[in-house]
Amino acid sequence: MKSTRQILLFGMLAAAVMAVAPSARAQIQTTGTLGSPGATTTIDGKQLPPPDPKFGGVIKDTAPDSKPWWPPTVVPQGRA
Question: What pTM was estimated for this model as a whole?
Answer without folding.
Answer: 0.46
